[in-house]
Write a structure and sequence with these properties.
By secondary structure, the chain is α+β, with helices and mostly antiparallel strands. The protein contains three helices and seven strands, in the order H-E-E-H-E-E-E-H-E-E. A four-stranded antiparallel β-sheet has the order 1-2-4-3. One of its GO terms (cellular component) is extracellular region.
């Protein structure tokens, strides 16, 4: 009975590692690499995939532990707005100044759309 439970536990652990594949937590990652193989093989396979990695055998399952760094932050969402017409008095520089004073991290430019020359802004949405 105890032997059956340990076999089920081993199967559960192996399936969990296979399903998750690579686990990332605060810059430390791990990856299941299958059976351990001959002595030193697990560590060698780990180092071949991840420089500075450390291979570890547990229950004949090779797991590679390595530093994966922090995840990249998501890119900011960009919004667009119109601030009226551009003219000789208010050209690209004026349009850019109006956008920068009204929106966060904004860039303004004059764009001809049809027969109208419009001041358009691109800025980081909040």
């Amino acid at each position: 009975m105890a032997n059956q439970i340990s076999n089920y536990s081993l199967v559960f652990i192996v399936l969990t590692l296979i399903i998750t594949g690579s686990i990332k937590v605060k810059g430390s990652c791990s990856q299941a690499l299958g059976a351990c193989g001959p002595l030193g093989d697990c560590d060698g396979r780990c180092k071949a995939q991840h420089s500075g990695g450390q291979g570890s055998c547990d229950l004949n399952l090779c797991t590679c532990y390595y530093n994966c760094g922090p995840p990249n932050p998501p890119s900011p969402k960009i919004c667009n707005a119109g601030l009226g017409l551009c003219s000789f008095r208010c050209n690209d520089d004026c349009c850019n100044s109006k956008c920068a004073s009204k929106y966060y991290k904004a860039v303004g430019m004059c764009n001809t759309i049809g027969t109208s020359n419009l001041c358009t802004c691109q800025y980081v949405c909040r």
